[in-house]
Amino acid sequence: MSIQDPDAARATSAEAHAIGADAAADLAATLKAIADPLRLRMLSAIATSPSGETTAGELATLTAVSQPTVSHHLKVLRDVGLLTSDRRGTWVWYRVAPAYRGAVTTLLDRFAPAAIDVHGARGGGAPAAGSADAEPGSIAGLGNVDPALDRVAASLAERFTGTPERECYRVVRESYAALARRGGNAAHLVPLTEHFARQRIIDAERARAADDGHTPQVLFVCVANAGRSQLAAALLQHYAGERVVVRSAGSAPASDVHAAVRSILDELGDTAAADVVDDITRFYPKPLTDDAVRAADVVVTMGCGDACPVLPDKRYEDWIVGDPALASPAGVAAIRDELDRRVRELLASLVPDEDDLTTEGTR
């Protein structure tokens, strides 16, 4: 019997799990191309441009460097295949290469916010959920939560008599598990679960009911449900009041709403802009559910890719809007203004008999 060298075995195991050397070299070249703050800002500006393309002149407004320097950075991104370009008249237009669109969306919507959150925690902020310095239970939830969840389920079963009691219990426990997985303060999980489960039951009953004369329902979906979708939902609720039912959700919800967005939500100043009026459940990231999609008349996606199911008889819109989590204060204000405009246009299409809202400013 031969005795295998332990070091050789470990080397073989590592080789089996590592990406290939050639693939690593190609990937490193691409990562090196985007490992520059200005190039990252340019890439994000192009990817979130409403038309999906922009010019070097427009990108020059991001920095004080000269136009040739801007063109050099764009050439670096183009040389590794991230961007394509074409000349129309006197301008060269740049766009993200089709093969890279999904990857760039993942970079900007998933990797970048996570990196910024971790960097902030290491810089002295609150520890990231799940880190060694995080409070115990910040992800796993409460130790003995069953009695509290049973009380929530029983209360919902009494209120929603059209939903079987066993279904209320299932929805409550599923909701708790989904909210616990996204992290956050475990002490808030039970009230958040009650609110989220109640929303899900309402949406499920609405999807089963006849649709004659019902109030329009809009669902805003992004990746984290911590920025764009929260802000769009709050703005629509602000303008629409009870004329529209508003929901928001995330394909991979974060543990909390971005601080820059929360401050804007608070500035709206009216409780109608919130899901409910108490501080804990006013604004929080929620997982995307099939019931929310089935109950919606309009589904507005913002960078969530193919995560949102496409169902018949639904109106779908895809809004290309920057991520407030990555934006400067001026960028956050611009994103807010863009969402405000789009929301008012959407509301005017849902309640066309009302006064024209497309020129109205925020209260």
Structural description of this entry:
The chain has 363 residues and is an alpha/beta fold. The protein folds into three domains: 27-134, Winged helix-like DNA-binding domain superfamily/Winged helix DNA-binding domain (Arc Repressor Mutant, subunit A, Orthogonal Bundle); 147-209, Helicase, Ruva Protein, domain 3; 214-363, Response regulator (Rossmann fold, 3-Layer(aba) Sandwich), CATH 3.40.50. Helices cover 49% and strands 10% of the residues. It contains 13 helices and seven strands. The strands form two sheets. A four-stranded parallel β-sheet has the order 5-4-6-7. Strands 1-3-2 form a three-stranded antiparallel β-sheet. Strand 2 (83-88) and strand 3 form a beta hairpin. Helix 7 runs parallel beside helix 9 (189-208) and helix 10 (228-240) packs across helix 13. The chain starts with 5 loop residues before the first helix and ends in a 13-residue tail after the last helix. Mean pLDDT is 81; it is low at 124-141 and 271-277.
